[in-house]
Amino acid sequence: PPSPPRTRESGAKPPSALPTAPAAARPSSGAGGEPETEGPGRDTALLRHLLLKLRATGPVTVAEYMREALTNPGQGYYTRRGGIGESGDFITSPEITQVFGELIGIWFVSEWIAMGKPKAFQLVELGPGRGTLTDDMLRVFNQLASLLSKCDVSIHLVEVSPKLSEIQALQLTGGKVQSNPEDSSAYMKGVSKTGIHISWYRDIQDVPPGYSFYLAHEFFDALPIHKFQRTEKGWHEVLVDIDPEVPDQLRFVLSPSRTPATEIFIQPEETRDHVEVCPEAGVIIQRLASRIEEDGGAALVADYGHDGTKTDTFRGFRDHKLHDVLTAPGTADLTADVDFSYLRKMAQGRTATLGPIKQREFLKNMGIDVRLQVLLQNSHDTVTHKQLLHGYDMLMNPKKMGDCFNFFALLPHQRLVHPDKKHKRESKSPLPPVAGFSELLMK
Fold first, then answer.
1. Do 353 and 346 form a contact (C-beta atoms < 8 A)?
2. Domains and CATH numbers, the chain
3. Structural contact between residues 243 and 251, judged by C-beta atoms closer than 8 angstroms
4. Taking a C-beta distance cutoff of 8 angstroms, is the pair 141, 148 a contact?
5. What is the SS3 assignment for 333?
6. CA dist 116 to 45, 74, 120, 350, Å?
7. Range list of β-strands (E), 223-347
8. Contact 92, 405 (CB under 8 A)
9. pTM for the structure as a whole
10. Each residue of 15-60: pLDDT tens digit?
11. Residue 2 has what DSSP assignment?
């Protein structure tokens, strides 16, 4: 039988020994196991473009390589393929079971209630995949229509892939969308099957200001990372270059001297020997934190990652198998674990941060067990029963997604601490707990 679809958190291994000089041999991909070398199109158009670039400019950072491989306008993986789902290259939680998106939808409604039911909110999803997660949340909003009847809800999707935005439009509106003129911030608009307005944007900065809930599910892991290696002579950046022995192949090398990025991103107290930093993630967290501080709302981040402990997590996926990150660029998904300690630092105290907590803890706190029982009681065929139990196991089993995925939130400070905390005894009502995060890990 075919092996089960691969989720992107699988398969990292400890750091590989990197070459200490440009003449050293190329290391393995850092993805574990033998790198995949067979398969169609190893000599891709994007590889030819990169070889020309490297011959002209010399080695590039891993971040620049990732950016080209994933979002190059003509040949990037997300602009051309974007293979999410069983027929693609990896599978995500919303594709496994509807329960995941329903519980996320309930989280936002719960926070909306805790914050005093504002008259309007924007739900902003970063990198919405196939639109499945938004679709599941819209179903929850529709089921809670009487509760949300006086609230003006709108959906705002931040998506760079033309192919994926088409799939999202079909899923959410049945394809009833209109393109917007170039001078408009949203490049496409439509109305969901339940009558909620949806807009598409290329950048979070294009999303209009206002009270907003932000969702980033498996978004930060695909942003370009810089990689650094500690050597006897101090920190050096890991770069991508042409292999002199195999002229159409790429390899990792170390920068001959310290690069500007080394000076900026390596903290003096760093104890690891290999570090990955994602500056774009830092910039986006800063934007989210300042928006939440100014306009209110909350952000929920769900991704696989660590709290500043892991080292080499950069890996590729193609057809649900690990794929050498330097082979056939543009044909595989590239990804790295999210460093939540870095995200917390980049919020710069503008908002409170909660987590990261493991996915199985978060979903348990959100009532996944009760929801599963209701769905099992309401389904009368064995196939649906099996699917529901399989989906639950994928999300909750510590050996599958349960322990690898984490939830992390940004909330306004007043959501967790009464403005009148000096007179706390007299305050009328205690603040409601934040759903999903049983222990408030205030950092």
1. no
2. 80-223+278-359+407-415 (3.40.50.150), 226-277 (no CATH)
3. yes
4. yes
5. strand
6. 54, 46, 11, 21
7. 226-231, 234-243, 246-254, 274-277, 297-306, 315-318, 321-323, 333-335, 338-339
8. no
9. 0.87
10. 445 554 343 323 333 333 333 333 344 468 999 999 999 999 999 9
11. P
